[in-house]
Amino acid sequence: MESLLKPLKMSPDTNRVLEEIRNGAENALYGAAPAASEELFHKHVESLIEGAGLPNLQVIHYRWFLRDVARLWRTRQGRDLAFHLELCLRKWVNLGLEPRTLQFLVCEAHSRLKGKSEARSSNDECRTQSAESAKSVDVRPGTTPFTESVDNVRSRP
Q1: Which of 7, 57, 97, 118 maximizes the CB count within 10 A of its CB?
Q2: What is the residue range of 97's domain?
Q3: Is residue 117 a contact partner of residue 26, using CB atoms and an 8 Å limit?
């Protein structure tokens, strides 16, 4: 337990990311289902450790670390998230993983998830516009598309 109290030298990038999180950076995974958050981490971040040429046992340990980080991102926000990410980094450094690699993974996860939430919000706008335009178009085979609603057509004299 006392090993978690030892300070860990953080890189400037890690300090910047933790400060962003403390100041309320948007958390794309907060409240997500466990399977969805792990899938997102697997898709965006885990590929970094799989292609690093590490021994299989170390890859497994880094996967466990990423699972811990995904759980934190899913269940915490703001200052609480930043505090627990620091504890998680200390825990895994004391379990023998390389501190710079762990910090890189946290920074990369933050940047990729931040990009994911920005892309999601713009995609939501596109989906909404597509859905609205699809509602106004008749797409049955053999008909030509029209944009008037059925009520407008029925109310004509």
Answers
A1: 97
A2: 10-154
A3: yes
